[in-house]
Amino acid sequence: MSKVTLGPDGLNRCNWSNSAPEFPDYHDSEWGYPVDDDQRLFEKLCLESFQSGLSWRTILNKRDNFRSAFAEFDFNRVAQFTEDDVHRLLHDAGIIRHRGKIQAVINNAKRAQEMVRSEGSIAAYVWRFEPKPENCLEPQTASTSAESIAMSKDLKKREWKFVGPTTVFAFMQAMGLINDHAHGCCCRVRATEQRRQFVPPS
Question: Is 166 helix (H, G, I), strand (E, B) or coil?
C-alpha cells in the first residue's frame, strides 16, 4: 500500500498529512526537519507527553494555548512554577487538564536546566541519539527504535517523566533525528537536504 497521497498542488505527501485540515502545513513546514533550538526541543517533548493516549490533532489544535499556559515553554520560567500554577493550569480549558502531565512538564523543566548544566544544551544531548544511517528503519513502519528506547531509558534515569520509548520516537520523528517522510513524499528530499546541511551540536 502506498504511503503517499497526491495533494491538490500535484505533489505527493505522506498519507497522514491529508487526514486533517491542520496537518498539511505542519507536515510541510515542521515535521521531520532538524531542530537544534533548546526551547523548541523542550516544547516538543512536553507536547508529545501530553499527546500520550490522545491524537496529535488534539494537541496541535491546542498548541497556542499550551504555549500561553506554559510561558512559551521557556524551561527556565516553567521550572519556577508552583502548586498555584498547577491549580491554574488544571482550570485552563484551553489545554489538557491532566495533573500528572502538568506536573511532569514542571519537573522536566527542572531536569532540562540540569541537562543544560551537565551537557551544554538539550540539543547536544538529544542529537547524541541520532541513529546511524545503516540503522534507520523503513519510513513509518515502527513506533519505537533502539535509539528511542535508549533515550527514554536515559531520560528516566535523569528523572524526566512521561518520556516512554513511543513518546521519544515521535519526538525524534518530528525533530528530524530521523527522516520518516515516506519514500515519494515531496518533503523527504527537502528534509534530507536540510539534514545534509545541518551540523549537530556537540
Answer: helix
Write down the pTM of the prediction: 0.95
**Nearest alpha-carbon partner for 31 in 44, 20, 12:** 44
Check residue 134 and report its DSSP letter. G
Closest CA to 34 of 137, 178, 157: 178
Length of the chain: 202
* Segment 100-121, tens digit of pLDDT: 999 999 999 999 999 999 999 9
- In angstroms, what is the C-alpha Rg of the chain? 17
What amino acid occupies position 122?
Answer: I
Longest dimension (CA), the chain: 51
Beta carbons of 106 and 131 less than 8 angstroms apart: no
Residues 6+ apart with CB under 8 A from 80: none
Angle between helices 146-157 and 165-174 (to 10 degrees): 110
Instruction: Give ∠ CA 110-115-128 in degrees, rounded to 5.
Output: 140
Cell of 142: 515502527
Domains (range + CATH), the chain: 11-197 (1.10.340.30)
Each residue's pLDDT tens digit, 149-177: 999 999 999 999 999 999 999 999 999 99
Which residues are the active-site residues? Answer: 26, 48, 56
